[in-house]
Amino acid sequence: QVQLVESGGGLVQAGGSLRLSCAASGRTLSSYTMGWFRQAPGKEREFVAAKRPSGLTTYADSVKGRFSITRDNAKNTAYLQMNSLKPEDTAIYYCAANIGGNFGEFDYWGQGTQVTVSS
Length: 119
Prior knowledge:
mainly beta; 4-stranded antiparallel β-sheet; globular
C-alpha cells in the first residue's frame, strides 16, 4: 500500500509560481510512474503531467512550457513546479502513482491540494 500526501498549494496571483510536493510512504516510488492531475469546480478531473522511472515525461498541452514534473527518489517525493500561473489553473491538484511504471492507469492517489490563481 502506498500513501501519497500533497502539499504546497495556496493562493497566488496570475503570473506567479508554486511548487507542489507529493510525499510517499509505504513503498519506494523509484519504480513507479508519478503523475499529477487536477479538477476544477464543475469539471472533470484532467491529466496534467507524468514522469516515468526512466525519466520520460508527458504534459497536457495546456501546461507545456509552464509546468515541470520532477522526482527525488531518495526523498520518495515528486514535485510539480508551476510557473506563469493563470486563473484557469485554479483547481484541486492530485498526485498519483502507477505501479506499472508506464503511462497507463494510476493505482494510488493523494487527497489533493488546492491551488487558486487570482487575476
